[in-house]
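wait is this the right file?? whatever heres the structure
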């Protein structure tokens, strides 16, 4: 059963409505490292816990300053922000998507439904929402590798992958993923034979894509939970091979 995201009440500032979700998204993103330092899934996704890291970015400092001002004025509850960030980072995150992938690997009938109507098939597992109402799943094969990007902004399937990594929203990734997809995934450590076709899928507000990775060889006896543990966020974006 999917976990419903916390409600996001609005707060007002100089006549304009600002949602908690938008501010939390900025707060979460500001804590993440840049694209060049985030090529290995979640190993570096918790900048606040790492020692010896570079000084905070301008964005992180601005978000912190804005948060301090809002707390001082009583517009924001830091505990509520922490709860929302924790929800998307740890409770939603890519775990929902991993369960979708594991079920597709172990249940041919479910996989057929997933490939035909991803939105409905994903909803069967309880994962749905405004950022995942129009889902399409694309399958990796020995001859095809899929890569997902949003060239216009940062459209991303939150119900199955949680919040997007900061590199997914960066201008270099959004432009280079289309121009030089092999070069981009190569920077993530994915080296593909020349005969493997790389297909790039541009997510939009209307359609969000999820990559169905190839099932790792030699794991036939694993349960769905054990299979789900093998699935990574980057594998479902296409910047990793399992």
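ok assuming it is, sequence goes like this
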């Amino acid at each position: 059963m999917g976990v419903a995201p916390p409600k996001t009440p609005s707060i007002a500032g100089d006549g304009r409505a600002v949602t908690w979700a938008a501010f939390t998204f900025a707060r979460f993103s500001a804590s993440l490292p840049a694209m060049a330092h985030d090529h290995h899934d979640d190993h570096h996704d918790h900048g606040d816990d790492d020692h010896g890291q570079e000084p905070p970015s301008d964005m992180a400092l601005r978000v912190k300053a804005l948060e301090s001002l809002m707390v001082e004025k009583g517009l924001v509850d830091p505990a509520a922000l922490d709860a929302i960030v924790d929800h998307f980072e740890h409770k939603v995150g890519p775990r929902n998507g991993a369960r979708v992938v594991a079920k597709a690997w172990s249940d041919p009938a479910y996989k057929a439904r997933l490939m035909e109507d991803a939105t409905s098939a994903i909803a069967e597992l309880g994962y749905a929402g405004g950022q995942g109402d129009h889902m399409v799943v694309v399958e990796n094969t020995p001859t095809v590798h899929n890569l997902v990007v949003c060239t216009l902004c940062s459209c991303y399937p939150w119900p199955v992958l949680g919040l997007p990594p900061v590199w997914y929203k960066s201008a270099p990734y959004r432009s280079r993923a289309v121009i030089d997809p092999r070069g981009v995934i190569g920077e993530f450590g994915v080296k593909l034979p020349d005969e493997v076709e790389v297909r790039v899928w541009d997510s939009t507000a209307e359609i969000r894509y999820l990559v169905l990775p190839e099932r790792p060889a030699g794991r036939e006896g694993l349960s769905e939970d054990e299979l789900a543990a093998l699935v990574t966020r980057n594998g479902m974006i296409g910047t990793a091979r399992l």
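The longest strand covers residues 144-149. so i think its the right one actually
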